[in-house]
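This entry is retained here.
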Amino acid sequence: MDFAELESIEGLRWSWNTWPSSMADLVVPLAVIFTPLAPLPDVPLLPYAPLRCSSCRAIINPYARVDYRSKLWICPLCHGGNTFPLSYAGVGEHSLPAELFPTHSTVEYNISSGLSFSPMSSPAFVFVVDACSPAEEMAAIKAQILRALAQLPDSCFVGLVSFDSMVAVHDLSFSHCSRLVLLSGDRDIPSDKIKRLLGVSSPYLRRISDAEFSITTAVEEMCCSSSVGVVGRRPARATGTAIAVAVALLEACSTVHGGRVMVFVSGPATIGPGKVAEPEFECPIRTHRDLVSGEAPLFAGARRFYATAAARLAAKSAALDLFACSLDQVGAAEMAPAVDASGGFMVLAESFSSEQFRSSSRRIFLRREDEDDCQQLCMDATLDVAASEEIKVSSVLGPCGSSGASWKLSSLGERTSVAFFFQVVGGGGGNCPVFFLQFRTRYTRLLGGVRLRVTTVARRWAPPDSGEVAAGFDQEAAAAVVARLAARRAEEARPGDVARWLDELLVRFTAQFGDFIPEDPDSFRLKPGFSLFPQFMFHLRRSPLLEVFNSSPDETAFFRVMLNRERVVEALVMVQPTLVQYSMDGPPIPVLLDVGSVATDVVLLLDSFFFVVVHRGAEVARHGPLAAVAEADAVALAAERVPAPRLVVCDQYSSQARFLLARLNPSATYKSAPGDGSGSVLLTDDISLQVFLEHLQELAVRS
């Protein structure tokens, strides 16, 4: 069964594509990773409201049974009968509406009253700029904001906030000169007080069509703070207060619903709420060791502050975007819950002038050739699931928040994915050998218009001891699901506890689905459909998603935020990177993610999602054809992602070769002589994949 081909049709990946009809210990949970706005082929756009079941409120779909003579249809989820309304009077065996076509498992309904935003529902974009940034960094920030303004619809509202030790709110309705309202950045100002100070009929959020000149002038006239450059001290940054003020701007304007708070920072917050570092350089910013040992006194308070901001953003259907460009940490670990829950973007780079930042910000506002809308900036989405009566949703992991019986996504794009976990209540397959799931996503497009996308799918029940359940196991989807669960556990538990949980899960899995003679490790075998899963778990344990060594808390938070929203293919690349070899002997070929693949006469291209590494062997000419082809492929690979990965081009034995070596299987280390005599060894005490699998087999046959 080609699970990737099914995903291209349905936008879904299932950990188990056939579910057991009775209680069974599958170890890996019943989960579905759903991409609500996946670019599926031939999705019809219907200009009318959907027809719903009168009993369960499910929407009519190709699996409904239709009695054309009586004008009745039977809901496949609850088996309730429904009559067609008069608008469906012409329905017949040879005149089916689009939603009943067998090939249309996904349809979209245009449920908006018009093609543009009404005055009561325009989105807003509030740009929050760190005035402590150096002059060249400030120039790059202003250039990006101006490019973003050129891409936004004229009906959007725009606000501008800059900050150092004070928070400056720019008055965009006054065109004669720059006029600002200054607020103290060292105190936690209540939202109501901010609204009273700024006024309800706020001149600080203006439509682009009404004040384009004033907005552009305000951006161009932003300048750097005079407090930058004090020896021995970090600049005074009131990042938390600035974000709170930006959220208050959205809350105070009744004509705004949906939008984004886009924050550009060059360093950590050192004063006010959300403070993550002391002003003195002699007090280093927190590390992973500090977090584990409880020696990060500012961390918990900053987390609580941003959790409150996340709730306020959700109430306004707004997202928090963080663009952090600095050689130091900026507090992304503290902001991560607000960014993740709101579905915002997070970009970590070294400089606002870097190609990594420019590419990321450019792709956020990119519009597809066949559409005039920006597919990365859909907003105000509500997602709910209808299922057969034996199935219940137990939990959800993704960039969303619970809202009663549905889930709210303040922002979503084409690749935003949500993992749903299900449980079977009682026995399945009693009356019907098939069960159904229906995913309904209501969202607002940037250029206007509300749409409802409906995806209805069917899968089979099977006895738990039959081969059908095992044949439906998707190893890649299961690895992505377990990775999300492990990353969530890592936020609340010690790294060692997460590794033990993962090991216990893997031992139970291999004991459950392996064929072996008890107490005989040499007899252990895994079926082909399960054989790659232990390998994925080996690389997951060593990945920066769980292994925090050599990563800062900001970087770890960034990795986990991206894992929590990406599709299966991207998540699998994070877990187990791909490695391609370029040589003079033939075309590029995939090779094992192993230190044995390193050679002096080849170029290796590693894709770990966050980094794309071009590794040139010692005998490969730096500017030769092999290196040029690999670098061109690396650039093409990076061009598909938001945010853009960091591109690393390095030579064998150079310091930056560590980006490649850290992800390779250490089959040859300084403790073992390399088999080929080439000297390709890793200076590590980590065990190899082969040793890991041998120990796993021993534990499985004993259990």
In short: Residues 613 and 648 are 5 Å apart (CA to CA).
